[in-house]
Design a protein that fits this description.
391 residues, D-amino Acid Aminotransferase, Chain A, domain 1, Dna Ligase, domain 1, Rossmann fold, 3 domains, 6-stranded antiparallel beta sheet, 4-stranded antiparallel beta sheet, elongated, binds adenosine-5'-diphosphate, binds magnesium ion
């Protein structure tokens, strides 16, 4: 679950990290009042969307007069914002954060993630923070510093010194101490809130020598939400793909991709293999949909319905290895969905495993035109045929 910048900053602020004064607005009427309560000029007007790269897409504006705050906020609020991370259609902006503009001396990058290769929480720090951090990581990887954390021991003060004392030019003692305190803080937040990401970019040193978080991103691990119930109220369903939200409701693992072949499988490994098969056939998957091990007939029906709601889908490949999920249950779910949605797209089914004979029989007897493949290779061939038929 991703949090908005203003929500993440609230969490950072409460843990003692300095953040700019700010006010969230959701309607145009609220804009004028804000310049009276937030220090300025300058003010910074920031679109609250879950995508990054807002600065590059015009979603972060600086205003020097109250009327400029109004024009900038009106220009962003209620519009769609396109950034390097949103795709060309952009995302709707329903909320805007207006905050005091801070005079920046330096911008650092600081984050906590789980490093998969070492399976350890890892602090990432860079003296070259700000909007170009992706380019820095590509072109000057030596400027990206890391500290792996032993979860038993937690974040150790020497690790902060390892990062901060490498800075060139060096920081004077007060901001250096503040910076190390921020590091210890974000580690604590990361662990106690079950985060998969805590990121501050930029973490600024202001002209007055104060360390301040000017941007913040926090992602909570969905698998831990059952024990982070008080964070659930921070969820913003408007930011989610509607099909992904619908899938979540039925406990289906669905992720939308860019292609036009819908895929439904059981198990994430099989999903990966199926995407490979689709690509080998010269096509692109439209989604990743894993119905899981113990899917019910209803979940299968919903899965097909969700795939069909994506208008770009030109054919569907269902690839199921029946284990706990029996092939006959799957087949009944698919037939029900096909009837309910009056499906007109080619539907390729490859079944194997528990009750496969019954499963195939149900599909055959349904009088619907399923293309039943006997193995993966044939399924790929059928996908390829569908693509070439479409030209
Ligand atoms: P994004 O990462 O989505 O582009 P940021 O919040 O990082 O958005 O803002 C982009 C840039 O705008 C920052 O790198 C920083 O230089 C500047 N900025 C953001 N907030 C403030 C602020 N309150 N005061 C001064 N500058 C700011
Ligand atoms: Mg940023």
């Amino acid at each position: 679950m991703k949090l908005h910048e203003y929500q993440a900053k609230d969490i950072l602020g409460k843990s003692g990290i300095r953040i700019p004064n700010g006010q969230l607005i959701t309607t145009a009427e609220q804009i004028t009042k804000v310049t009276k309560i937030i220090n300025g000029p300058p003010w910074v007007i920031k679109a609250q969307v879950h995508a990054g790269g807002r600065g590059k897409g015009g979603g972060v504006r600086v205003a020097h007069y109250p009327y400029e705050v109004v024009t900038a906020a009106e220009d962003i609020l209620g519009k769609r914002l396109v950034t390097p991370q949103t795709g060309k259609n952009g995302v709707a902006v329903n909320q805007v954060l207006i905050e005091e503009g801070v005079e920046i001396d330096r911008e650092y990058y600081l984050s906590m993630i789980v490093d998969r290769s070492t399976a350890k929480p890892t602090m990432i720090f860079s003296p070259a923070g700000g909007m170009e951090i992706e380019e820095v990581a590509q072109e000057s990887p030596e400027l990206i510093l890391k500290q792996h954390v032993d979860p038993e021991a937690g974040w150790m003060p020497y690790q902060g010194r390892n990062l901060v004392y490498k800075l060139d030019p060096p920081l004077s003692p007060a901001p250096a101490r503040q910076l190390m305190a921020v590091m210890a803080n974000i580690y604590r937040i990361f662990v106690t809130l079950d985060c998969s990401l805590v990121e501050i970019n930029p973490l600024a040193i202001t002209k007055e020598g104060k360390v301040m978080a000017l941007d913040a991103k926090i992602t909570i691990d969905d698998n831990a939400l059952f024990r982070q119930k008080e964070l659930l109220q921070l969820d913003d369903p408007k930011e989610k793909d509607p099909l992904e939200s619908m899938a979540e409701k039925y406990r289906l693992n669905y992720i939308r991709l860019d292609g036009n072949i819908g895929a439904m499988v059981n198990g994430a490994g099989l999903a990966m293999a199926t995407m490979d098969v689709i690509k080998l056939a010269g096509a692109e998957p439209a989604n990743f949909l894993d119905v899981g091990g113990g899917a019910s007939e209803e979940m299968i029906t919903k899965g097909v319905e969700i795939i069909l709601k994506d208008r770009r889908v030109k054919a569907i490949l269902i690839n199921i290895f029946g284990g706990i999920l029996r092939c006959d249950v799957l087949a009944r779910g698919v037939v029900a969905a096909a009837k309910k949605t009056n499906i007109r797209l080619p539907l390729i089914v490859r079944l194997e495993g528990t009750n496969v004979k019954e499963g195939r029989k149900i599909l055959r007897d349904s009088e619907l035109k399923f293309l039943v493949a006997k193995d993966l290779a044939e399924a790929a061939e059928l996908v390829a045929k569908q693509i070439s038929r479409k030209g």
